[in-house]
From TrEMBL:
Transferase keyword on record: no
Parts forming coiled coils: none
Source organism per UniProt: Wallemia ichthyophaga
Signal peptide: none
GO molecular-function terms, A-Z: structural constituent of ribosome
Protein name per its UniProtKB record: Large ribosomal subunit protein uL15/eL18 domain-containing protein
Upper taxonomic lineage: Eukaryota, Fungi, Dikarya, Basidiomycota, Wallemiomycotina
Length: 211
């Protein structure tokens, strides 16, 4: 295939045909270091003379600034991060009622976290500890009698669910049990259901189970 017919006159002298193209230089071969002085990459193998970086394990940490106080130590630490907090993905009752009206979620069976995630009501729980139901039920949204099983729910949300003739069940999940609940096909050998280990969680789930 000749490309000369498709180019202006002043560019035809620089054109070529596809069958004349070569793969020369496409594959880059790595340098073979340490093959003697006559190989141009021998002796110090391109690492210079002496020094920390010329050694086999002479790596420098990315935060190292030559010995001066690094940036991470020159400024004070502010704020607080609670490692024991639970980070839930929130689901408002109005959106849940809308999903049920659009038949994205089947209200005839117990609605679990798996149903909520697979219906795209919540987009992924990779960085979450579960799902919490919140109450922002608008007067125009009609919530049918549904039975929901999730990690947690606010008190007004539970009252709204029970007023509609449904029920809410608290269920504890850790990271592993939540992954198995969402994708059971990835666990050929099922793991046991998780039980709360913190004192506050034990007291909470024991209290809600007796309601």
């Amino acid at each position: 295939m000749n490309l000369n017919l498709k180019l202006p006159q002043q560019l035809r002298q620089y054109s070529t045909s596809i069958d004349k193209l070569s793969s020369f230089g496409v594959i880059h071969k790595s340098k073979r270091l340490g093959r003697g002085r006559s190989s141009n990459q021998g002796k110090t193998s391109g690492r210079g003379q002496n020094g920390q970086k010329s050694r086999g394990d002479g790596k420098v940490a990315p935060w190292f600034e030559g010995g001066q106080t690094p940036l991470t130590k020159r400024f004070p630490k502010t704020g607080f991060y609670n490692y024991n907090q639970t980070n839930y993905a929130t689901v408002p009752l109005s959106r849940l009622a809308q999903w049920i009206q659009q038949r994205r979620i089947n209200a005839n069976t117990t609605i679990t976290i798996r149903d909520i995630v697979h219906s795209n009501l919540v987009h992924g729980l990779s960085k979450k500890d579960g799902v919490k139901i919140l109450s922002d039920l608008k007067p125009t949204a009609q919530l049918p009698p549904v039975h929901i099983e999730a990690s947690s729910a606010s008190k007004p949300a539970i009252e709204a669910i029970e007023a509609a003739g449904g029920s809410f069940t608290h269920k504890y999940f850790n990271k592993l049990s939540l992954r198995q609940h969402l994708n059971p096909h990835k666990f050929p050998i099922p793991v046991h259901e998780a039980a709360p280990t913190k004192k506050a969680d034990i007291l909470f789930y024991d209290r809600v189970s007796k309601r």
